[in-house]
Design goal:
Strand order of the largest sheet: 1-2
Helix content: 40-55%
Order of helices and strands: HEHEHEHE
Number of strands: 4
Number of domains: 1
Structural class: alpha/beta
Oligomer: single chain
Length: 136
């Protein structure tokens, strides 16, 4: 995680909010170990759309990561009565690592959200990002 203690992360997000730029802040990230492993539910939700100008682009490399984000979305819906605000998904698929392809990552997250939350699951726009290392 960017800041395990969350203090600097909270301060950065609050500063961005207070600047009132009108722009969105995209959180590219994972929920390593799931909600509570590093950040609690409130902290994870804050950077995943709980703050008005924040949007999540979760790293989805496998089924476990999709399930972790679906669990956060479930908690947000039931505890905070608001959805996680997704802006797409991020993958790192290459022919070498055999990770999830971008469309598969998107489909897996959407299915896990539907399985965990049902018809009130948040939307995940089909914005796909695949980061690959340059080959020289």
């Amino acid at each position: 995680m960017w800041d395990r203690s969350f203090r600097r992360t909270r301060d950065f997000f609050r500063g961005f909010r207070d600047a009132r730029t009108g722009h969105l802040l995209y959180n590219f990230g994972s929920l390593d170990g799931g909600v509570g492993a590093i950040w609690n539910a409130r902290q994870a939700f804050f950077v995943a759309g709980g703050m008005r100008y924040a949007r999540a682009i979760p790293e989805i490399y496998n089924l476990t990561m999709a399930r972790q984000w679906a669990e956060l979305a479930h908690i947000a819906r039931h505890r905070y009565h608001r959805p996680v605000q997704f802006a797409g998904v991020l993958t790192t698929h290459t022919s070498r690592n055999r990770g999830m392809k971008p469309l598969d990552a998107h489909k897996t997250l959407v299915l896990e959200l539907a399985r965990r939350i049902g018809s009130s699951a948040p939307d995940v726009p089909p914005t796909l990002t695949n980061i690959r290392a340059a080959q020289y």
